[in-house]
Design brief:
The protein has 475 residues and is α+β, with helices and mostly antiparallel strands. The chain has four domains: 5-103, 2-Layer Sandwich (Alpha-Beta Plaits), CATH 3.30.70; 110-218 and 331-396, no CATH class; 226-311, Calcium-transporting ATPase, cytoplasmic transduction domain A; 432-475, no CATH class. It is built from 14 helices and 16 strands. The protein has helices at residues 46-57, 84-93, 113-133, 138-165, 171-184, 188-220, 273-276, 313-326, 330-359, 364-377, 381-400, 407-414, 446-457, 463-471, and strands spanning 5-6, 12-13, 34-41, 62-68, 73-78, 97-98, 102-103, 226-231, 234-239, 248-251, 261-265, 268-271, 282-284, 289-290, 295-296, 301-305. The chain has a six-stranded antiparallel beta sheet, with no helix packed on it. Strands 2, 3, 4, 5 and 6 form a five-stranded antiparallel beta sheet that branches. A three-stranded antiparallel beta sheet has the order 13-12-15, with no helix packed on it. The longest helix has 33 residues, at 188-220. The radius of gyration is 29 Å and the shape is elongated.
């Protein structure tokens, strides 16, 4: 059984230190202030992140709490008396889950609790419709709708309750009020339809965000879990996090490097495309620098470790991608400001619509129903969710292709480009050399020359060797 893959080193709380180191792109906590980073699961919109921030900020000695919705993590600066367990409990009280600090095998999205609850709710809603068309007793039809509301609305109601506790009106509060109100006046089908549609939308948003977060996790998985270390003339297989700076690591042909270091013995070609984007392997020898995540070619190496695993180039790139996702584009900032004003206005308008006309003599039932319709129609969920999800998905898609985008502002600016110029045309290729022309010397035919060249390169792993074998028709 393989060891669990460690997540980014910022997860969890630094043990027995009054303050943690400054991360790339972030500010270090003040003296005497500790910094804790917790993985938050279950957030499906930026409004959920605000709820978590406000709930954690209410804890004693918390100086600052910021939730990176794109990366799904909470960054809290607090006094030394606050434990990570207390912070995790506050996150759970806000209606969200706490992720593990190690990378584990994740089930497919369609087998996650949220997806299963949404599917069950949709099936119960469909059952209620079928019972209504079949003329079944009202108690059966209403029972199916009520179960659909309960099953699909559980995450929504929990998030709405947490938002109210944090004095934060969000989309979950609006949807919960509309659902409860519709059920209260006997419109069970409408209440169930609201829950099913909103739960399905949230589930799809979570799926899109998880795919993007998976791009960062896949970066961390590029480096092996274990390395072969030479200690006192004896080679030992040890976990990567137990390798110290200055130790000698053995890298065999075809292996992926797990650390940053300097070659002390051996010559090879190294494929650095996952790290630098360079499409053609680079010749390396004694004194040259190698990076974690790159792939060794056909030569064995002895490498002196220059950085610990958590400070490797690969881990720093992964952290930069997460931080880039957290930087909001101008459109996101506008939407956030707009929703903070818009949502309370909608709630106030709905209350006025339900109260004022009945006071003036109109039918309470009619105007209460119209107030519920206003809550649903005017809910800003599409506006608030779509903008950050689009930015996060764009950054994640780019990172999976080896392109690092410095935040939503840069991504938004790139969308306005009319022309693009590159100064390193050699890297703008597929990275797969091909034989374009063949000149045979010494009286050999072209077929004989390529056959002899293929025989010489048959066991080579170099891209040029692959090109010669392909020209000879050897697979």
């Amino acid at each position: 059984m393989s060891r669990p893959k460690k997540m980014l080193p910022v997860i969890g709380q630094e043990p027995h230190v009054p303050h943690v180191r400054q991360e790339a792109g972030g500010s270090a906590p003040a003296e005497g202030i500790e910094r804790t980073v917790v993985r938050v699961e279950g957030m499906d919109c930026a409004s959920c992140a605000t709820t978590v921030e406000k709930r954690v900020a209410q804890l004693p000695s918390v100086h600052r709490a910021v939730v990176n919705f794109a990366a799904g993590r909470l960054d809290a600066e607090h006094g030394p008396g606050l434990t990570v367990e207390e912070i995790e409990k506050a996150v759970e009280e806000a209606g969200f889950g706490v992720g593990q600090t190690e990378e584990v095998d994740r089930p497919p999205f369609w087998r996650t609790p949220r997806a299963l609850l949404t599917l069950a709710s949709a099936l119960l809603f469909a059952l209620g419709l079928a019972l209504g068309l079949a003329g079944a007793p009202d108690v059966m039809r209403v029972g199916a709708y009520a179960l659909a509301i309960l099953v699909g609305g559980l995450p929504i109601f929990r998030a709405a309750l947490a938002g109210l506790r944090a004095r934060h009106l969000d989309m979950n509060v609006l949807m919960s009020a509309a659902t409860i109100g519709a059920a209260g006046i006997g419109e069970w089908a409408e209440a169930a339809s609201v829950v099913v549609l909103f739960a399905a939308g949230n589930a799809l948003q979570v799926y899109a965000i998880d795919r993007t977060r998976g791009a960062v996790r896949s970066m961390a998985r590029l480096a092996p879990d274990e390395v072969l270390v030479c200690r006192d003339g004896v080679e030992h297989v040890v976990p990567i996090d137990e390798v110290g700076v200055g130790e000698i690591v053995v890298v065999r042909p075809g292996e992926r490097l797990a650390i940053d270091g300097e070659i002390v013995e051996g010559e090879t070609t190294v494929n650095e495309a996952p790290v630098t984007g360079e499409s053609i392997p680079v010749e390396k020898g004694p004194g040259d620098t190698v990076f974690s995540g790159s792939l060794n070619g056909s030569g064995g190496l002895l490498v002196r470790v220059s950085r610990k695993a958590e400070d490797s180039t690969l881990q720093r790139i992964a952290r930069l991608v997460e931080e880039a996702q957290a930087k909001k584009a101008p459109a996101e900032q506008f939407v956030d400001r707009f929703s903070r004003v818009y949502t309370p206005v909608v709630v106030g308008a709905a209350v006025a619509l339900a109260v004022v006309p009945p006071v003036l003599g109109a039918s309470f039932g009619d105007w209460f129903y119209r107030a519920l319709a206003l809550l649903i129609i005017a809910c800003p969920c599409a506006l608030v969710i779509s903008t950050p999800v689009t930015v996060v998905s764009g950054i994640g898609a780019a990172s999976r292709r080896g392109i690092l985008v410095k935040g939503g502002a840069a991504l938004e600016a790139a969308g306005r480009l009319k022309a693009l110029a590159f100064d390193k045309t050699g890297t703008l290729t597929e990275g797969r050399p091909t034989v374009s022309r063949l000149v045979a010397l010494g009286g050999l035919s072209a077929a004989e020359a390529v056959r002899l060249a293929a025989a010489l390169e048959r066991r080579s792993e170099h891209p040029l060797a692959h090109a010669i074998l392909a020209a000879a028709g050897v697979t």
